[in-house]
Amino acid sequence: RRRMRVLELYSGIGGMHYALIESNLSYQVVAAVDINTTANQVYTHNFPNTALLNKTIEGITLEEFNKLSFDMILMSPPCQPFTRIGLQRDLDDPRTKSFLHIVDLLPRLSKAPLYILLENVKGFEKSAAREYLVKTLRECQYTVQEMMVSPTHVGIPNSRLRYYLMAKRSAQQKVRIQEKISAPSTGPAEDAPPAPHICPPQDKSHTCPCSTQLKATLEVQKKQIQNSDLSVQQIQAFLEPQEDVHEPQHLLPPKTLLRYAQLLDIVRPSCRRSVCFTKGYRKYVEGTGSVLQCCLDTSVEDVFPSLDQCSEEEKVQKLLDLKLRYFTPREVANLMGFPQSFTFPESVSTKQQYRLLGNSLNVVVVAKLLQLLVTPELQHKDGGPH
């Protein structure tokens, strides 16, 4: 069977390429395209034989695209125009220029690709960019499937809810892909907001007294539910061997512990959850990724309630006793589904490694979606998703 010719846009550190390997499909990446020079260094280090174009996508002409003669496009366009933290400028953001260039070229290609897979952040589904893409795809006779998937849905203990769009150019009936992705277990959806809570009417200048307490209680409940979901693996399966981790350089310093203790998301090796690792991991504390508790003799629940009654010195000591450390770049890569064969060149600093991983995607999730997109009938002998 002829190998499928794949064009990898916004290739980053090669997450989509690794997903192709993981999917067991017969493919050839005809070109990868990205303008991030550090990401390109990592890509070439891991895929030295793949043609990597270090240029802007909007700088690639229709003629050049046609010469590549691809059957599939994989892309993860810049997410900043659509993020909660970004300004959500959508189509007005100059970073969507390259994405619009691709969408505009689609109807004009001499040979339209059979398959398209796009990954982006939660928020993209409400954007004008998404609307424009779907409209163009439908006009070009593509069947479109959209969904939100997190690694926890495929048994990986990391929350990274992302939007996926899969398009197939075919007269065949639509495949109900959503049903084939392992559904999250019962109980509140992993990334779903807590049930609405109505506060008593009051002067708007005051914060509702029950809201902070309620939020904390709901957060604890949500973590308990996630940790009891046996369909998700434990964190320890993704950790480096203890002897390979140079612990002192990964331990949280006293200054950080003292200032940000209450904001940390702390997990133990036996946990079945961790929060999304972003490009700001280790640079910022809140919402950038979990930290690991290495000393298991004490529980966080025992330490935290008494902290307010302690002197600064006692406080630091109690927190240091927990031995809280950051996940290493290798461990973050493991949680994102990258294989052991994936490595960083020595020239890439630890800070850059976290940044690049935070901008990447979950390899296992994309691999499963690729299998379902290209071979919907492909299943395990037991009938479950392959």
TrEMBL record:
PROSITE patterns: C5_MTASE_2, SAM_MT_C5
GO BP term, example: methylation
InterPro entries: C5-MTase (IPR050750), C5_MeTfrase (IPR001525), C5_meth_CS (IPR031303), SAM-dependent_MTases_sf (IPR029063)
Keywords: Methyltransferase, S-adenosyl-L-methionine, Transferase
Gene3D superfamilies assigned: DNA Methylase, subunit A, domain 2, Vaccinia Virus protein VP39
GO molecular function per UniProt: methyltransferase activity
Ranges where the record places region Disordered: 177-203
Location of the active site: 79
Pfam families assigned: DNA_methylase
E.C. code: 2.1.1.204
Assigned GO CC terms: nucleus
Entries under NCBIfam families matching the protein: dcm
Family, as annotated: Belongs to the class I-like SAM-binding methyltransferase superfamily. C5-methyltransferase family.
Name of the featured protein: tRNA (cytosine(38)-C(5))-methyltransferase
Taxonomic source organism: Takifugu rubripes (Japanese pufferfish)
Taxonomic path: Eukaryota, Metazoa, Chordata, Craniata, Vertebrata
Gene name in the database record: LOC101068212
